[in-house]
Every structure is written in C-alpha cells, then in structure tokens.
Amino acid sequence: MSGALWPYFLLIVFGFLPSEIWRWLSVILSHGIDEGSQIFTFLKTVATVLLVGVVARLIFAPTGELAHVPLAARIGALALAGGVFAITRRNVLAAVLTGEAAIIAAGFWFLR
User: Fold this and answer.
1) What is the mean pLDDT of residues 76-80?
2) What is each CA distance from 62 to 74, 80, 109, 112, in whole angstroms?
3) Model's pTM, two decimal places?
4) Where are the domains of the chain?
5) 11-30 pLDDT, tens digit each
6) Measured in whole angstroms, how far is the alpha carbon of residue 88 from the centre of its chain?
7) Which of 21, 6, 72, 30 is nearest to 103 (CA)?
C-alpha cells in the first residue's frame, strides 16, 4: 500500500468500522420493535435530549472560532432553524441544514 494511503486506511479501520458495526447491529435488532412501544419512545427521547445538549453547548458554551461569533447571532441561527422546523412540518434535516447555513454565514460575517 502506498505511503500516502495509510492515513485513510487507519481512518477507516479505527474510525469508521467500529461505529458502523454498532449502527448495523442496531438496525438488525430494532427490526422487530414496535414504533409505539415504551422502549422505542424512551430511546427516541434519549436521542433527542442528547441532540438538545449538543446544540445547547454549541450555542451557549462554544469553543474555537465559534466562540468569536456573538451570542445573538448563534441564537438567531437557532431561532431560524426552529422556524424552518415548524414551517416544514417537523423536517429535522431542513432545520439542521438551515441552522448550519446560518451559523456558517454568521461566522463568515463576524470573523472576516
């Protein structure tokens, strides 16, 4: 194997495959779970709370270059994403992409 390809090989073996195994295992094991069951509702709730925690940390305690973007701009991006979420009938992908675009635009605006 070429010397230039080793980092990519290591990234796949140690970064991608360990998490991908768990994803496929969860898909296989969740096949028979009723979507309205208590365990599925609990798991969706935990996943949502984790996502809220990550977003809250990015908004209120950012690190790196994001810390230089004013709090008002970060909250504005969050509000815009929330509005898109409501307008698109709870489309998480549209809301996340809108929020990302808004925070990237704010970063370019305030960090130039």
Assistant:
1) 96
2) 10, 19, 17, 18
3) 0.65
4) 1-32, 36-110
5) 888 888 888 888 888 888 87
6) 18
7) 72
